[in-house]
Every structure is written in structure tokens, then in C-alpha cells.
Amino acid sequence: MSRRHKNKFKDTYHNHRNENIINISEYIQRKNKVLLVPRNLNQETYIEKLLDPDNIIVFGVGPAGTGKTMLAVLAALKALKEGSIKKIVVTRPAVGVDDERHGFLPGDLNSKMEPWTRPIFDVMQEYYSPKQIKEMIDEMVIEISPLAFMRGRTFKNSYIIADEMQNATPNQMKMLLTRIGEGSYMAVTGDIQQTDKKEAQNGLLDFNKLYNSYKFAKYIKFVEFDYNDIERHPVVSEVLSIYGDK
């Protein structure tokens, strides 16, 4: 092959490779639009509040299986795909059911948080492959930040998903809610019945009481789910009844 033909082949090869490079902004738009479809009236109310741009912080409180976390993640993905925010921040208290903390788990911070953030990324994988999600984490389009690491930060043009916040203290809750910066939104989820904290140490319960006594909230909304709103397999409701939680 002549030098001229070799150069032509090389240019064609590199152009073909460049055409197949997908940058992170294209990942965001790649799959179908995110649809939030309610299955009951409380979910419909929750979705309306999540999608209303005048609502900066929306609380979804109630038992497992009511869709509060799933719908919050979908609202964040919708905002990201539509370009109204630039990044998604995932946070929660790094405390498991046996009070296991992230310092005892192997790997980097993302690996340490993986057991607790898995339900959120399960929803994201309906729209992005694991490889794409990893790329988005590497590019800080998605950030995983344990609640304890958020002090002193301000998030702009972000959608913060704060999950399992029944395990936060009142001081942690106040700190979290003041991380909002310009162009940002926050969804706070939790189940007051599933906490090991005493009432005085429960940040979610504490803020709920303060909110109910404050009559002038303009940017913060609360949606409370109950066991009638559970949309998982019917056996979940039966299990909760057996345990006396319903």
C-alpha cells in the first residue's frame, strides 16, 4: 500500500473512531424520556409536587413500597435529561439495619456506599447501562455523597436525592436542607416507622413536626404515604400486617 493510501486509510479509520465516541452529555439524552406515572392518588400528588419548579424541597414520607424513592429518582433523571439541572447528588446517612457504617466496608467511597445506594441505581439502570452510570459518576454528573460529608458544601444546578432520612439526626437534617444553592432541587425520603433513633434524635420526625407548626412554607412540600399506598407485590402488605406494622 502506498504512503498516500496508508494516510487516507488512517484518516478514515480515525474519523470513524471519532464518530463513535460518545461524550457524557450524549449519555444524558440517549434513552427515552422519563415518564412518571402514578398508581394511586398520593403518588399523583407526589409527582405533581416533584415536577412543580416552584417547589424546591419535596418530602416523601411513608412505608416501603409506596414509590417515594423511585419517583424521586425518576424526577431527578427527568430534570437531568431535560437540562434543567447539571448533576444528581445521592446522599443518605451511611447507617444500615445493623448500624454498619461505611468505614468498615472495603474500597473507595463509592464502593463503600454501594450497599445503601443500590435501590437508587436500580432505578437509574432502567435508563442507563452500568457502564454509562460509571462514566457519569467519573464525570461527576452523578455524585455519591454520604450525609456526613456534605457539611460546608453548597450545590448549584443539582438535584439532591436524600434517601432513608429517618436515620438522620435533627442537626444533620438542618445541615442537609441548607445545602441548596441556585438552580437546585431536593427530594427527601424516609419512613419514620423504620428508624432505630429515639424521637428526640430523629431528624425526619423533628422536621415534620416543625413543618406542621409552620404555616407559611412556600418552597417546601410534604407528601405522606400510608400502607394503602403500597404498590409492591401484595405479599409485602401481608408481611407488614403479620409484623403488626399495618
Please give a handful of descriptors for the protein shown.
single chain, 246 residues, alpha/beta, Rossmann fold, six-stranded parallel β-sheet, 6 strands, 12% strand, globular
Please provide a written account of the structure.
This protein has about 250 residues and is α/β, with parallel strands linked by helices. It has a single domain, classed as P-loop containing nucleotide triphosphate hydrolases (Rossmann fold). It has nine helices and six strands; from the N terminus they run H-H-H-E-H-E-H-H-E-E-H-E-H-E-H. It has helices at about 5-20, 25-30, 40-50, 70-80, 110-125, 130-140, 170-175, 205-215, 235-240; strands spanning about 55-60, 85-90, 140-145, 160, 185-190, 220-225. The protein has a six-stranded parallel beta sheet. Helix 3 (about 40-50) packs parallel to helix 4 (about 70-80), helix 4 packs across helix 5 and helix 7 packs across helix 8 (about 205-215). The N and C termini lie far apart (about 80 Å).
Describe the secondary structure blueprint for this structure.
Layout: H1 3-19, H2 24-30, H3 41-51, E1 57-61, H4 68-82, E2 87-91, H5 109-124, H6 130-138, E3 142-144, E4 158-162, H7 170-177, E5 185-190, H8 203-213, E6 220-224, H9 234-242
Parallel strand pairs: 1-5, 1-6, 2-3, 2-4, 4-5
